Structure formats: structure tokens, C-alpha cells
Amino acid sequence: MDKIVYLDNAATTALDPMVLEAMIPYMTEFYGNPSSGYSIGRQTRRAIESARKQVADMLGVKPTNIFFTSGGTESNNTAISAALTDLGCTHIISSPIEHHAVLHTITHYCGDAKVTRSFVKLNASGEVDLHDLDEQLAERSAKGIKCLVSLMHANNEIGSLLNLTTVGEICERYAAIFHSDCVQTIGHYTLNFASSGVHFASASGHKFHGPKGTGILYVRDGINFTPFIHGGGQERKRRAGTENTHGIIGFTKALELAMENQVKDQAQIETLNKQMREKLNALSDEISFNSTAESLYTVLSVNFPTGTNTDLMLALLDRNGICASGGSACNTGETYGSHVIAALNKGLAGATIRFSFSKTTCAVDIDAAVEVLGKILEPVKAVDHSTAAIPAD
Ligand SMILES: Cc1ncc(COP(=O)(O)O)c(C=O)c1O
């Protein structure tokens, strides 16, 4: 295998060398604990607070609205826990295609009989039925039930998008708390949380060329919440644990680079996404797409013809150096298929594969992937999948 063609950027992205460069001094030279009162502690404290201000400026909010976390999963857990524990929400409205970091967290809290849940209806592209959301909120509000609405900004498998401002307005009408998992959009769009109507928003550094294990939770002004992680008084007593200083610096540098180059990177990625769609259309008229032209531009979710099998196709792609995903990367190794594709209810009888792109993707990557797909499509269809084992390398 000569070269790896990485088309799984919604799972994670490569660390930008400039991000690494910005992080290194905070692992070597500036190692003080930010809670220490002496000079080298104060130095890292200043770096963290300046990073917080930079992140806040980029998202149109105040530094006090930003809490550094270990990533999207922790931010989602913190927001959901805060809405139930501190803000009086007893019903959660979400969608069946949320990331497991939201879905499984909700299931956890619904084990307690005091908390109930419901899903909003989705259209065939996975977009939220706003009329249904409005009706569900109206019904609960009339009964005096306070709701948490947790809906992702962009779906990580198919790329369907949510209009944050419209959902924010609906939530406001019924005094509901609105949390959005923005893990796939922060760093890819210019966002202003002050005007978006969200109470909580989650982000993760490794989705835009930052380090893994870093993230933020945006919390709207006036929301007082108890910590999800208990211990020391870090993050203004809302998130215990010695700050991941180099991670925070890396997250901030990655967001800075993403925002500086957002327009250029989006144009490049959109072009590649469109090219791949066209080339796949030319390959077979039995290929269809779950992503639309309006979806998140980094994702292309492809349905292959009847008779193809996701696991076998992914294995053959991998053998040819192409990295892609059958659904969310977090599912790799699990035995069931994608809950997102299942929820679309399209009755697909073939493989579904997500290709996802970033600023590091180039046209030759698309050509290489389509060439391999062209070679494997017919042989895969010819295999009896009831008995087939994935061939070893
Ligand atoms: C939409 C979404 N939410 C949450 C997460 C989890 O983020 P993290 O890996 O930072 O915990 C992911 C990562 O796959 C994601 O795509």
C-alpha cells in the first residue's frame, strides 16, 4: 500500500503542524499549574484566559460563556446534566439521529422515572420537522412541563443541518432550554452563539485539526449550573481538574486557523465533495446519496447498489489504502449498523459509506477512492454475504 487516502475527516482530522508548534512550549517550557500562585503558574493561567477570550471572540460571545472541557462527549454530558439537575427540565426532546454522546446520555437520565423523552419527526433527509417540535413543546408547556431540546447542528453521518436561530426562537416561545451538539460545525462555519438562541453548545478540537481530548461548552449568560466533574475549583468551579493547558492552546490555535481560512477551505472542500458525487453518479446509476447539496459540506454519505455490503466494502477500501466509515467512527467494532441510517427508514438493501473531507483532502484522493470503488463494486455484489468472511490481508 503506497499512500493512505484519508476520507474520514468527520471521525477526526490530522493535527495541523502549526497547532502542534503552538502547543509544544506548553508541554516543555510553560509547565506551571495554572492554579499555582507563583510566576510560572500565573504564566499558564494568563495563557488559558487569553485563549478563552480568543475563542469567545471567534464565537461572538463573552469569555465567561466558555468552559474548556475534554471534548464533545463531556460537553454534551455536562449540558444535559445541567438542564436536568439545575434548570428544572423534566422532559427531553431530541432526535433519533443524535450522536451517541447525546442519545446514550439521555437514556442514562431517563432511567430515572422523573425524566421522560421523545423524538422529533425527521424528513427523508434527516432534517427536523419544526412543526412537530413546536407542537411537542406546546403540549408539554400547557401541562407545565419544562423541556430540554437537544438537537445537533449537523449530523456527523449524513450531514443534515439544523437552523439554530429558528429552533432557538421556538424554544424561547415555550421557555425550553436548547442544547446543540455543534461538534461537526464549529470550525467549519462562522457561528455567533450570542444571536443563535442556544443555551448550551458543544465543540470538539479534533474535528478541525486540533488535538484530541479538547473541547468547549458554551453556556449562555445567566445559566447557573453545578459541575458535572467534581473536585477542584477550576473553570470557575464548573469543571474540576487541572486544566489541559497545551490542549487548550491547541484547540484555540486550531479554531483560529479554521476561522482565518474558513471561506477558502469551505470552497475547496465543497468542490471536492461535488466532484466525488459526480464521479460516483457516473460510476453507477444505482448509487444514491443521503447528503444533499444543502448538507454539511464536509460529508458525503453514499448508498451503494442492492447486494453490496458495508463491512466488506470498507475492508476492501482499507486494503487499498482508502479510509472511510460505515457510519459514525465511534461505532467501529460494534456489531449493529448505523442508528442514523436506520432512522432514515429508506429501506436500503446495499452498503452505506460515509466519505468526509477536510482542508487536507485533494482531488487525487477523490480520484483514487472512486477508482477503487469502480474496481470493487461488481465483485462485492457477486459475493454471497450470508457466508462471506472479510478476507485477511
Ligand atoms: C456529532 C458528534 N458529537 C459528539 C462527538 C464526540 O466528540 P469527542 O470525540 O470530542 O468526545 C462526535 C465525535 O465523533 C460527533 O461527531
TrEMBL record:
Its EC number is 2.8.1.7. The keyword Metal-binding applies. The keyword Transferase applies. Keywords: Iron, Iron-sulfur, Metal-binding, Pyridoxal phosphate, Transferase. InterPro entries: Aminotrans_V_dom (IPR000192), Aminotrans_V_PyrdxlP_BS (IPR020578), Cysteine_dSase (IPR016454), PyrdxlP-dep_Trfase (IPR015424), PyrdxlP-dep_Trfase_major (IPR015421), PyrdxlP-dep_Trfase_small (IPR015422). Its cofactor is pyridoxal 5'-phosphate. It catalyses: (sulfur carrier)-H + L-cysteine = (sulfur carrier)-SH + L-alanine. It comes from the Bacteria. Belongs to the class-V pyridoxal-phosphate-dependent aminotransferase family. NifS/IscS subfamily. PANTHER family: CYSTEINE DESULFURASE, CYSTEINE DESULFURYLASE FAMILY MEMBER. This is cysteine desulfurase. The lineage of its organism: Bacteria, Pseudomonadati, Bacteroidota, Sphingobacteriia, Sphingobacteriales.
